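Hey L., structure's done. Input below.
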Amino acid sequence: MSNLPNCPGCKSSFTYEDRGALVCPECGHEWKAGEGEEQYAGIVVKDSNGNLLSDGDTITVIKDLKVKGTSLVVKVGVKVKNIRLVDGDHNIDCKIDGIGPMKLKSEFVKKA
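Output:
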């Protein structure tokens, strides 16, 4: 068993070393040993009701959302499990059943 640290992005324990960098096979995050934790410590994301969200939470979509480039729609009331918070305009990274990986804005979801 290795003593490699968990991924700072998704907290996965399946990290491995590749050419001097640490890699997470679950989220694809790459970092050098000793860095990364402080990068994720400052992300504060709130849902539409003002509740703080964190990695691994379950959320519910509160508005029909068209998926850009397709005819698919994420309907109101869809529950999304095991979210991951990221920095940027679309600050929730998740997988939606029947659609696949997506990035959502926190203003269109509420904590379940």
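The radius of gyration is 16 Å. The mean pLDDT is 86.

-- N.
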